[in-house]
What does this fold into?
Amino acid sequence: MYRNIKLHLINIIIMILIFTGCNRETANSRVSSTPRFITPYIFISQWGSKGNENGQFNTLVDIAVTSKSEVYVIDHKIISTLYNTNQVESYRIQKFDSNGKFIKKWGNKCKITGKMDIPEHIAIDSKDYVYVTNSGNGCIQKFDSNGKFIKKWGGFRQIIKNIPFGIPYGVGIDFNGYIYVTNMFSSFKRSNGGAWIGKYDNNGNFITKWEEEFDIAFLGDITIDRSGYIYVVASCFSYYGFEEASIIYKLNKSGQIITNLYPDQGKQEVYESPLDITTDLQDNILIANVKINKIELFDPNGAFIITFGTEGDGDGQFKNPRGIAIDSKGNLYIADTGNYRIQKFKPNPEFKSK
It folds into this structure.
């Protein structure tokens, strides 16, 4: 009798051990198959260093990519003046292939036609024409892919009847070839002194402008997604003139604001510009946040998804990222200003935003 009880107890213990072991194995397999964090982009390569030679950088300002995945970079050389204020001494646009091989450069400090004076942002259309906003002389300049000057429009000394002009900053191009330019401030001739967005055709002919919603904002970078929605960076100010927050306005094709995005990890808190913005092939929004040294990802509806990157100089790390662009294959390029380099990433196929 006791022997049967003993055997029965042994069988129960064995069954408990088997059951516990199966559960432990299942739990372990669940953990290993679902990593705690998967970055949306994987580092591929980087190029650049500090200096004045070809392929080197001083102050990276903006970046754009052509249909052939050629990379254009605006680079400022900045000096400190007698009163310890920074001043742009010279400027250039450098062109690279998708692997970072230097191709050519153009630009300097001159204000004459075809030269640049404080270029701010750059955009490239489907035919690889290059558009540059120039806050130093208040115009938009158009170049071909070899850097040959084609034309300009706007300008502080060029008064065009019934066409507004201001201080151009951000520039974006939609899939129909229309050019969108943010103007930081208006000309003194306008009764409303707020910032505004101008829309032009690819020859610089004025089409329309939107300004009613931007009276208290400094407008920065702008981009247009594949569906025609417009995203513009705005820095809002308090009544005392201090910057309170930077937000992203999402506008429809008629220029009406339909939602706001709040950078800095999706929190509605105080943060600073400049922020640079682009959209990926799924119309998700990517923001290079210079304050937190990270890239932020939002879905097309403005819902925050994730941040990636950390502060530093290693692969996938950033220091004052200011320019951001996506090529036709979905690869991501970051102008890592504080590290004097361009970083290139590819989409991570394992990452799921939902």
